[in-house]
Amino acid sequence: MITRTEQTFVLIGAGGISKAYAAAFADGLPCQLVGVADIRLEAAEEVAAITGAEAFDDIEIMCAELQPTAAIVCTPPNTHAAICIELMNLGIHVLCEKPLTICSHDARRMISAAENNNVTFSMGSKFRFVEDVQEARRIIESGKLGEIVLFENTFAGYCDMSERWNSNPEISGGGVLIDNGTHSIDIMRFLLGSVTELQVVEGRRIQNLPVEDTARLFVRNEAGAMGSIDLSWSMNKVQPHFISIYGSKGTLQVGWKESRYQLAGESEWTVFGDGYNKIAAFGNQIRNFSAAINGEEELIIDASDALASVMTMETAYAALKTNEWHPVQQADTQWSRPQKHVEV
Known about the structure:
Blueprint: E1 7-12, H1 16-26, E2 31-37, H2 41-48, E3 54-56, H3 59-66, E4 70-73, H4 80-89, E5 93-97, H5 104-117, E6 121-124, H6 131-142, E7 148-156, H7 169-172, H8 176-179, H9 181-192, E8 195-202, E9 214-221, E10 226-232, E11 241-247, E12 250-255, E13 259-263, E14 270-273, H10 278-293, H11 303-320, E15 326-327
Parallel strand pairs: 1-2, 1-4, 2-3, 4-5, 5-6, 7-10
Antiparallel strand pairs: 7-11, 8-9, 8-15, 9-10, 11-12, 12-13, 13-14
Helix pairs in contact: 1-10, 4-5, 5-11, 6-9, 9-11
């Protein structure tokens, strides 16, 4: 029997999200984190210390020295395409954090690079890997809730964004809509299928930022279910459940500390999970990506999902300017063909 060599991973970018990934590796995974790179060496050293990995301030040197199997890219969105394509050209498998890119043109370039170099490529979107969200999908697919009528999601908590790159449109591509809304849209797509049209309304700008800090999305999916999504960096809309699904036969809620559902005619809720575990979600994501590299599993977030995420955000920003309903272009079978550059 041939013994498979352990996969080695590197992290690129050493911000807060990288610390969560490093913590997942430290919690025990079938692959090893061997390097962390950031233009700020001290930041890379801080993240690397979580697992005992090596720290670098140069991606090229790190990859040349460590020869990693795969990389997780956690840099700002406007850098994703260049970094990911460079890595894939080296034969390195790439998991790139959301938002994948600022425009679908770059997303298609990244997907083409993965195809051309025969490497595995995926977008990081942690909520698909929360066990309660996965169980919610199984419950919905079982038909227990009947026909789904309404999806609700809220990601709204005050955060001072005045000094963060997330509120610089040249770096991030927008504000809370692309930052948190990318998660919201991906959750809805995972649970209920493709989004076909949407409307976006901006709230008051409280923080005097050059981008939106509060927004509400109204969404419809291909089956006709409605969605209502509240996003904000400037208000605390604190709720025990961040996802609510209303069907013709029951209601389901995914919460931060507990998830549950209640069928029509029942007086009691059925609890089915312990809520949101961030480190466990990152661990599940890395396991799926690692298994996909080995050909043992299908990617839970494939290239079509990644492209659909970017295309939906492009539509959302077009809708933000008009407050009208906009159809969402679907990612077709020719998603790897570069298209005309569309700015957000």
